[in-house]
Amino acid sequence: MLLRRRARMLRWLVCGRLGPVWMWKVLLLFIAIGFAGQLLGVIFNKSSVQPAAHSIFSSPEAQEPSLGSCRPHTHIMFLKTHKTASSTVLNMLYRFGEERNLSFALPLGYQLGYPLSFNAHRVKGYRGPRVVEFHIMGNHMRFNKTEVGKVMPADTFYFSIIRDPVALAESSFAYYKGVAPAFQKAKGLGDFADDPMKYYDARLHNNHYARNLLWFDFGLNHNANFSIALAQRGVMLIRQAFQLILVSEYFDQSMILLRHALCWPLDAVVSFSLNARQQKPSGMSGSWVGNIAVAAAGIGVKGGPSQAKTVPNLSLTDQQREKLRQWNALDWHLYRVFNQTFWKKIDKFGHARMEKEVALLRTRREELARVCLRDGGRPIEAYRIRDKNIRPFQSGLVKILGYELQQGLDNATKMACLRMIRPEIQYKDLLDAKQFPRPPAAQARAGQHRQSLLVAAEGSFLRQDLSRTGSRLLGGQTRGRTAEDHTSSVV
Fold first, then answer.
1. What pairs with residue 136 in β-bridges?
2. How far apart are CA 455 and CA 111, in angstroms?
3. Exposure of 84 in the CB half-sphere (CA atoms within 13 A)
4. Can you count the helices (H) and strands (E) in the chain?
5. Tens digits of per-residue pLDDT, 134-183?
6. What is the mean pLDDT of the chain?
7. Residue 351, helix vs strand vs coil
8. Looking at the DSSP assignment, which residues form a beta bridge with residue 278?
9. At what angle do helices 318-327 and 329-349 cross, to 10 degrees?
10. What global pTM score does this model have?
């Protein structure tokens, strides 16, 4: 009886003072659901959150030699000479600038008015002397220091790259035979070397590719008769304008000197061989990783397994090589002088120190090739590259090779690897679109126009047919090579 009274009193208190029982039941149910939701959320988050993927590009600085207390150069002018591995260098500049959101002095087309002497108004977005800050300039031009000075800041670092004139002539003949009248007439490079004046006419357009091409690119008179006084005057002008001249034949050593001059991290000067020139038929064997040192930009014809190309005859006797040096006497003098200067810089740097850093550079290149590239880092023919955005344009009568990326890369690594293999023309277009964005409608119109666009490029015409498997260029350029390269030549 007593228990019943207490139960009724409790129900009266709960229902009368604290609300009906059903209300409490609902409240307890919501509390239970909320607690369960929190518990499930914690479990879900623990199961779905993965540790950040460790990119091979994440922290390489810890393993590289110290640069001291210097600050990286961000105002840079690179004179992109022909057939000297200059496109590899330009790729490095593109990568460095893109990663840091720097501004590029880009051409209106694909070159800065070449082969005419450079004029500041050839730069897209130029509005007057130093009105707009440009950080990096590196597309093809015929050098004109006064006009460049209108575009680039006063603290700009100037550098360029050169190559043995005989090796340069081999590449030039292979890639400009279709556009340089002097080369068109010759059966082979040996025939041209035996009697250059039989084929050469200084008045004809594009014949600058056939004589003292370095001298021409530096803005000097390449048809002048050689004299020691003239050659020394030219060298003096180049020394006054440029802080560093690299040498294509010693590309890795050049990259170490450049890295220290610019105060850049090691990965900024690691490169793959872009647009290597195939020397053997398809199905060739051998490791390519050791040859990924020098590169160039290719522009040219659509590649494919059914297209047969007749490789020009580039064979030379020792006597013909000497004749080419005499024919390109101004370039030969320039090369010998700056090659000596180059090795004096290495003497000052220290040979043991240079060997150590070159070894690190090559090890890093091999490491990145294994991570980034399929087929063990071996270049493949352009038609086999599935992504048309990274197919190299073809040039002249030889095949230009490219790369495919490894599958399954994390986003950060994939982007970094892609930057290293993106061909020059596609990279320039990408940077142009970022720096000068257009409305979607304008982009669509530009894309349609580009499918049949004829672009004056190095005295040739580039036909970009983006709706098909490749692009076509009549003539064009590629450059550079390494002495180590046994199966391909980079041009």
1. 76, 104
2. 10
3. 25
4. 17, 11
5. 999 999 999 999 999 999 999 999 999 999 999 999 999 988 998 999 99
6. 78
7. helix
8. 488
9. 100
10. 0.77
Q: Which helix (H) or strand (E) holds 14?
A: helix 2-17
Amino acid at the residue 467: S
- DSSP for 254-276, please give it: HHHHHHHHHT--GGGG----TTE
Determine phi and psi for 361, rounding to 5 degrees: -60, -45
Residue with the bigger pLDDT between 443 and 95: it is 95
Phi and psi dihedrals of 276, rounded to 5?
-65, 145
For residue 379, give the nearest of 426, 427, 421 by alpha carbon: 421
Q: pLDDT (tens digit, 9 = 90+) per residue, 172-225?
A: 998 899 899 999 999 999 999 999 999 999 999 999 999 999 999 999 999 999
Read off the pLDDT band of 1 (50, 70, 90): low
Judging by beta carbons within 10 Å of its beta carbon (0-12, 13-18, 19+), is residue 235 exposed, middle or buried?
Answer: buried
Q: Which residues pair with 473 in a beta bridge?
A: 462
Residue 193 · residue 325 · CB < 8 Å = no
Q: Is 345 helix (H, G, I), strand (E, B) or coil?
A: helix
Among candidate residues 423, 476, 77, the one with its CA nearest the CA of residue 273: 423
Q: Is the dihedral of CA 343, 349, 352, 358 positive or negative?
A: negative
> First-to-last CA distance in the chain?
108
Whether 39 and 46 have beta carbons less than 8 Å apart is answered as no
Res. 388 pLDDT band, cuts 50 70 90? confident
Q: Buried b vs exposed e over 61-84: b needs ≥16 C-beta within 10 Å? A: eeeeeebeeeeebbbbbbbbbbbb
Distance CA 176, CA 171 (A): 8
Cα 77 to Cα 98: distance, rounded to the nearest angstrom = 16
Spatial contact of 113 and 140, defined as CB atoms under 8 Å apart: no
At residue 387, the pLDDT reads: 77
Residue 269 in tokens:
């000067």
- To 10 degrees, what angle do helices 165-176 and 329-349 make? 120
